[in-house]
Amino acid sequence: MTDQQNTAANEEETAPQFSLQRIYVRDLSFEAPKSPAIFRQQWEPSVGLDLNTRQKALENDFHEVVLTLSVTVKNGDEVAFIAEVQQAGIFLIKNLDDASMSHTLGAFCPNILFPYARETLDSLVTRGSFPALMLAPVNFDALYAQELHRMQAAGETPTVQ
What we know:
Blueprint (H helix, E strand, L loop, with lengths): L1 H13 L2 E15 L13 E13 L4 E14 L2 E17 L3 H30 L12 H14 L8
Antiparallel strand pairs: 1-4, 2-3, 3-4
GO cellular component, one term: cytoplasm
Subcellular location: Cytoplasm
Subunit structure: Homotetramer, a dimer of dimers. One homotetramer interacts with 1 SecA dimer.
């Protein structure tokens, strides 16, 4: 019976584990350089979105993943506003092989963070008195696969920090 308990305990210790510990806003900024004149113009916006992720290993199998959304909205040739949010999360991730860890940090965690970042960005923009900015969902699995393909073509190896 003790051997079965030891085996079960060993399997539990080596089984993959994933746990969300905390989600938080790491940084937030908003700038409306042409206010208040921009509010008196005909509104014909064009939206530019930059998306970035980064991760950092913390102590004891904890990892911080930061998703950055930067939006520049122009009305004609003038910048109406620039908004940026860094939505972060702390995740406990244990017992994954390198490929699974890389995918988890590069795609799975950003998928969890994106709805929070999108809502924070939308709230920030409406507080600036601009129309709501609801970004379309992002397929982080496809973005991760594209980046992996690009790295392989360049002879690079994905690394987990």
